[in-house]
Amino acid sequence: MHQPLVFIDGDQGTTGLQIHARLNGRNDLRLLTLPAAERKNLQLRAEAINSADVAILCLPDDAARDAVAAIVNPDVRVIDASSAHRTTPGWVYGLPELDEQQAERIARAKRVSNPGCYPTGAIALLRPLIAAGLLPADYPLTVNAVSGYSGGGRAAVERHEGPDAQAAQGVLVYGLHLDHKHVPEIQQHAGLSQRPVFVPSYGSYRQGIVLTIALQTRLLPAGVTAARLQACLAEHYNGARYVQVAPLQLGASAVQLDPQAVNDSNDLRLAVFAHEQHGQVLLTAVFDNLGKGASGAAVQNLELMLAAMG
To answer: What SS3 class is residue 228?
Structure first.
């Protein structure tokens, strides 16, 4: 029986290390990584990627584009964890729960773009509501999100865990230029006709994301309530292995959200909170930025592709 060869290009970053840990020791595939001294050898990297059944790219955007350009073997399949190809025509977006056909598209695809961490939560909340006509595609949206510092890569981890950790900020809000690279990805795959405002931040904890999107019911189509929004999400994700939708949370009964609640898993927890008298709704997502937001999603997509390979 053929054991597929999986090459991880860039296995020393936060995402690559997590993918390697999730796949290491499995006997249904062979894992290929390059020694540290050879990771920047372009010839060896090209040979490795062209020898693989599936290559997982955990690289900066430009390096990911170069890696794809080096592929000459038409049988090589790629999962790109960078943001280089998330809105590129011909690439399949690696969010299996996007719609009923997306998992099959991923399973058959030659090129899969792994979703960004923040977009995973935003798109999971918005796409079903827009597709159902409950949320206008031109709604003036603001997406707020707080991630653990590991979302900033090795440099951020070093700032918080290295010798100068005491000087690291407790909370760091960034993306204030309102041109964050995740915004086109959110807009395209959520089905928005207008660009949303995106306000990301890092907290002084290692991993986990809480993402929120506020809505005013007066700006929604007539008859759309928080209960209908929650029911739409619950129906869309009914039976989804990794996505859970909480019952509607109203007023004073609303609970607090812990961004670390599902760390070290591939779970994505969605919820709808509302204050009916105020006419306000809050859509929320909690997930691990290193799990469903990165390495967990890559392994989920790999599983789909391997199953299709037989």
So the answer is: helix
Task: In the chain, list all ranges with CATH 3.30.360.10.
Answer: 117-289
101: exposed, middle or buried (Cβ count in 10 Å: 0-12, 13-18, 19+): exposed
CA distance 16 to 33: 10
Contacting residues for 208 by C-beta, under 8 A, at least 6 apart:
147, 148, 258, 259, 260, 261, 262, 263, 286, 287, 288, 289
Q: What is the pLDDT of residue 217?
A: 97
pLDDT band, very low/low/confident/very high, at 165 (cuts 50, 70, 90): low
Determine what percent of the chain falls in helix, strand and coil, rounding each to the nearest 5: 35, 20, 40
Q: In the predicted model, what is the mean pLDDT of residues 267-277?
A: 96
Which CA distances in Å does 199 have to 153, 179, 189, 196?
A: 18, 10, 18, 10
Quick check: is 232 catalytic?
Answer: no
Please say whether the beta carbons of 189 and 99 come within 8 A: no
Closest CA relative to residue 184, chosen from 85, 90, 92, 97 = 85
CATH class of 117-289: alpha beta
Task: Identify which of 54, 53, 51, 56 has the alpha carbon closest to the alpha carbon of residue 19.
Answer: 56
- Whole-number Å distance between alpha carbons of 285 and 277: 23
Catalytic residue among 79, 117, 220, 262: 117
User: Any residues with CB less than 8 A from the CB of 25 and at least 6 apart, and which?
Assistant: none
Cα radius of gyration rounded to whole Å, the chain: 20
Fold of 5-114+293-309: Rossmann fold (3.40.50)
Residue 236 has pLDDT above 70, yes or no: yes
- Separation between Cα atoms, residue 189 and residue 175, nearest integer Å: 20
Please tell me the distance from the alpha carbon of residue 272 to that of residue 212, in angstroms, as a whole number: 10
Sort strands 268-275 and 249-250 into parallel, antiparallel or unpaired: parallel
Outline which parts of the chain fall under CATH 3.40.50.720.
Answer: 5-114+293-309
